[in-house]
Amino acid sequence: MRKKNVLGLLKSPMAYVVTGFLFVISLFVFEYAFAKGTVDRAVLQELAKNSGAPTVNSSSATRNYTPAVRVGLISQADIDDLASRVASLNEEKLQLDNTWRIERNKHDSMMIRIEDSKKTIRLEMDEVLLNNSPRERLDELLGLHELLSKDEKEVAKRVSQIEEKLASHQLLLVQAKRDLDRMKTNYAAQQREQDIQRVQEITRFLDRELRFSEAVSFKCSPSKSLAACLNDYPLDARIQNWVQDHYQAALSEELADQIDQVRLSSDWYTTEVNRNFTEANMNLDGSVSAEVEVRANVVSRKMMACALLKAPADLCETQSVSLIVRSNKYGDQVYINDKPYGSTPLSLILDPGVYNVEVKYQGLTQKRTLTLEDNRHLNFVF
Question: What is the DSSP letter of 343?
């Protein structure tokens, strides 16, 4: 008799209702546990594996990137290589952003479907309790809700993985961009320092005294004397061309290791010229041939070295005394005689004199006072 009562109780509508109610409650508990992070991670990993969810492994661009630490001179190839890596990281970030938006939209859509499923189950439970609906319909709804909840957890996991990867990737991208900016700054300072050195090296060759002889021949009126013909000949215009040719030839030879091809302009220098005829002959038909000896003192203008090297003109506008300031910190600030000059590395051309140099970094200050007479290189260590 008891056995029949138990079987009858199990087959009663109320048993199905209670079972369905407990199942719904278990789903809510599982969702809450997942939200709080108490669901077993191994279970979620297995679900992700079976569903083909993406992992958080870094791409080749991310794995291969390491912060740029340069020792020695920087080349344009170094900058191009780092710029290429930044572009790769940025492209990968765009792809991750797009994947995240797709998965996020999918998750939001599934959450709406889950909420609708919950409402439908509640309504169906009410109908079952009132005996207005068959139990099979409720069982079907509960089964669909279980599958939908499982799918939602998998999508939520993928969204979380992509967000973690995006956060890590963003840090790498910021680091790479900062390294690229710093490398460009160091490269510009390096180029300026090299230009300063080159300007100083060739400046000592520019001022010089030239001595040479040239032959001239021209026609003159037979009625004039040789002295009158030589005096009337427009020699000065030709002398300037001779001076430029000889000056250019001399510089080309001495600066061959530093300048591929020397091309001068008469605006780059001034000359003081002394000349006289050492030999002269005149034929009966008025043909004159003569030998001219020229002495020219050539003084270069300040801008000449920069013009020859195609370097920034400001390197030649002041006296050639350079001050280079470096430190071991990124983002410091340099003040010279209380005037801000930006961050290190810093290369300046200054007039000789006394200078107070300060380097500030995150509340710390280091000071040096120096008498700048020759080229100086200061290095601050915090």
Answer: S
Class in CATH terms, 318-380: mainly beta
Distance CA 9, CA 34 (A): 35
Three-state SS at 67: coil
**Alpha helix locations (H) across the chain?**
2-11, 13-35, 41-51, 60-64, 76-129, 135-206, 226-232, 235-254, 304-309
Contact of 357 with 347, CB cutoff 8 Å: no
> CA 90 to CA 97: how far, in whole Å?
10
Contact 198, 347 (CB under 8 A): no
Cα–Cα nearest to 280, from 324, 219, 198, 217: 217
Q: Tens of pLDDT along the chain (382 residues)?
A: 444 444 444 445 555 545 555 554 554 444 444 343 433 333 334 433 433 444 444 444 444 555 545 556 889 999 999 999 999 999 999 999 999 999 999 999 999 998 998 888 888 888 778 877 778 888 888 889 899 899 999 999 999 999 999 999 999 999 999 999 999 998 988 888 888 888 888 888 899 999 999 999 999 999 999 999 999 888 877 898 899 999 999 999 999 988 888 999 888 888 899 999 999 999 999 999 999 999 999 999 888 999 999 888 888 875 557 889 999 988 899 998 888 888 888 887 776 778 899 999 998 999 999 888 788 889 999 8
Structure tokens at 140: 């079907």
